[in-house]
Amino acid sequence: MDFINAIVLLLNYIFVPALSYGSQLALGAIFVSLIYGILRFAYFTAGDLMSFGTMFTILFTWYFQSLGISLGVFPTALIAIPFGIIVTIFYVLVKDKLVFSYYRFKKSPPVMLAMVSIGTMFVTQAIVRIVIGPFDRRFFDGEKFILKANEFKEMTGLNEGLTIKSTQVITLFVTIIVVSILFWFLNKTKTGKSMRAYSDNEDLALLSGIDPKRVVMITWVIAAILATIGGTLYGLDKSFKPFTYFNNMLPIFAAAIVGGIGNPFGAFLGGYVIAFSEILVTYAYRKFFIYLLPESIEPDSLLQLLSTDYKFAVSFSILVVVLLFRPSGIFKGKVI
Amino acid sequence: MTFFSGEKMTGGYGGADIITSCTINVNRGEIVAILGPNGAGKSTAMKAMLGLLNLKSGKVYIDGKDISKLTPQDRVKEGISFVPQTRNVFTGLSVQENLEMGAYLREERVDEIINEIYELFPVLKEKKFQIVGELSGGQRQQVALGRALMTKPSVLMLDEPTAGVSPIVMDELFDHILKVKKTNVAIIMVEQNAKQALSIADRGYVLVTGENKFSGTGKELLNDPEVRRSFLGG
Fold it and tell me: Which of A194, A196, A210 is closest, CB to CB, to B92?
């Protein structure tokens, strides 16, 4: 019985949260990886683009709520997402036209484009702070839990409860759907294949008649879609605070690089690698060992490797280790 | 009037002229080899015909039409196809996807053309779902040729197709190039292996410092004592 309790404990505090957090990171990492592969620069606006998309989703959510529209047990934000996506697509395309296209035309080196994206990051941050403010906001409505700890305890008679939040399940479902559509698009459609070809060998793609403008535009559209969905899922699951989204850039980049930057499937798996590492390292294992070990050698300390305040150190360390020892990432992307 | 020709082309990559008053032409169903020592401007002459560099003077014609001012992409639409020396395949895509990308501009279904390519290069059919990065050098060159042929070109330009492959693979590739020639395509190739190239070429041009020094049929060049001494190693 103690053994099952220990497993449930890990499921509740590590597996379920890491799975949803990993999905949210994966969505971000995929578009960072795509932009790196096709536009050939590190897109530092990633975290703030997610907050931009989420902000508009929240604004539409409030609007729908004021009209009395709701989805019952599901959060209203789900119907607001498409509208948030449209605004974000418009924003990235205007930004590309006004800023990035100039440097592309001049064939600026990737480092310069990365610096430019830091500039657009500050602009995006400023827009978000002006429109919605820097505060922590919750915009979740609907049914919060699918499985409550007490219900689980009653059902199974265990000491440990298992909580499953509806946002975690929604995150997982939406991620599976979005990622399946994306990989179907990249692997099976002519446009998707042309994007992979362009990322693989730009000169040959041009010689084959692939239109670079079209490829670039579709990349931005996909980035806006993934950023808005990923950001909204994160905000529903936790809360929306612009600064947190900016911070998320580090695990997102770590995920993209671990997976092999330029390789969207690697980035997808990289998201889970980072999420699980972060949570595994910052979890306090005391209770887990109390269940498993005999009373005589029970631990006194928390058995926590790293305080949760330092969770970014985990992704940062992974980033450094991967760049030092396997710069192409686990799944063979481009060497940075 | 030859089918595809570059007349008195002069130009370079911005600095000094690399080719001066260089003339190259080719007819359908003919193989023309461009030879010469390193740095003679062989590849540059070919790239000029594709539009990858701006000409100061000179004209490029295809089928009597002046295409000197067209971009490389537009020249591809006119029926010119180019196989670069390096990075001439999409290494992360499968064989079949490489061929599909070659026919990107074609609106209709490309299955038929792909089957024609598979008939020409049977080994590609066996490996159609394999990632090109995992193929051998010779097979990759076949993918590169196949990709270039997907546009159903009237002119095929090959930049050192046998660079870095073994002699056996080189013979095999030349066989494939001869097969392509039989489909009534005009072929221009730049080659380092002058002897082998001239043995399959109908005509050859020898460039020295960007100018036509010698030209003639493969046999003539092979038998010309001066050409032999300078470029064929005696």
Answer: A196
pLDDT given for residue A87 in this prediction:
98
Contact A249, A46 (CB under 8 A): yes
SS3 B186: strand
Look up residue A3 and give its two tokens.
């053994």
Nearest to A197 among B77, B101, B151 (CB): B101
A86: burial class by Cβ within 10 Å (0-12, 13-18, 19+)?
middle
Tokens 């606006």 identify what position?
Answer: A45
Average pLDDT, chain B: 88
Of the listed ranges A53-62, A213-222, A264-273, B162-171, the one predicted with least confidence: B162-171
Chain A residues within an 8 Å CB radius of B91: 200-201
Query: B129 near B94, Cβ under 8 Å?
Result: yes
B-contacting residues in A 206-235 (Cβ below 8 Å) = 206-210
Whole-Å CA distances, A262 to A37, A47, A217, A255: 4, 18, 17, 12
Residue A52 belongs to a domain: yes
Collect all residues of chain B within an 8 Å Cβ-Cβ radius of residue A206.
72-73
Asked whether the beta carbons of B90 and A201 are under 8 A apart, the reply is yes
Using CA atoms, how far apart are residues A161 and A11, in angstroms rounded to an integer?
10
Residues of B in contact with A209 (CB under 8 A): 73, 76-77, 104-105, 151
Give the pTM.
0.90
| Cβ–Cβ below 8 Å for A204 and B72 | no
Fold of B1-79+153-234: Rossmann fold (3.40.50)
Name the domain count of chain A: 1
| Domain at A146, CATH number | 1.10.3470
Task: Indicate whether A173 belongs to any domain.
Answer: yes
CB atoms within 10 A of CB A121: 19
Provide the Cα torsion A300, A301, A304, A310; round to 10°: 160
* ipTM score above 0.90: no
* Nearest chain B Cα distance for residue A190, angstroms: 8
Residue of A201, A213, A331 to mutate, interface with B, max B Cβ within 10 Å: A201
Contacts of B77 in chain A (CB under 8 A): 209
B187: its two tokens: 């072929």
